[in-house]
Design brief:
Number of domains: 1
CATH architecture: 2-Layer Sandwich
Distance between the termini: 25 Å
Shape: elongated
Structural class: alpha+beta
Number of strands: 4
CATH class: Alpha Beta
CATH superfamily: Ribosome hibernation promotion factor-like
Oligomer: single chain
């Protein structure tokens, strides 16, 4: 499973920041890793320098073998919360899609 992490111009993430988020995503989706070929993660700070909650957005697009891509979006107070919520939503979507494949 390849993870491509994209950030907007309002986020200056270090390698430690990116590595921590990739670890969080990998751990959360490890039971689906054999089905996912690539993940595109888009992080944004919608308000930029202004205060406001929840203004962190995470979009995860999952490429699954032989299936159309799945995309989920989540907002949070921090990037970690936004990613965590998006991973939870993606797990739910993957359960539904892959469950249907097993039923047929």
């Amino acid at each position: 499973m390849v993870i491509q992490l994209n950030t907007d111009h309002n986020i200056t993430g270090s390698e430690k920041f990116k590595s921590a988020l990739e670890g969080q995503i990998t751990d959360g989706l490890k039971r689906f890793s054999e089905h996912i070929t690539r993940l595109e993660v888009h992080l944004a700070d919608e308000n930029g320098h202004k205060r406001g909650l929840p203004d962190k957005r995470c979009i995860i697009e999952a490429r699954i073998e032989g299936r159309p891509a799945l995309a989920v979006t989540n907002h949070g107070n921090t990037h970690e919360h936004a990613v965590s919520g998006a991973v939870d939503k993606l797990k739910s979507s993957l359960d539904k899609v892959l469950g249907r494949l097993k039923d047929h």
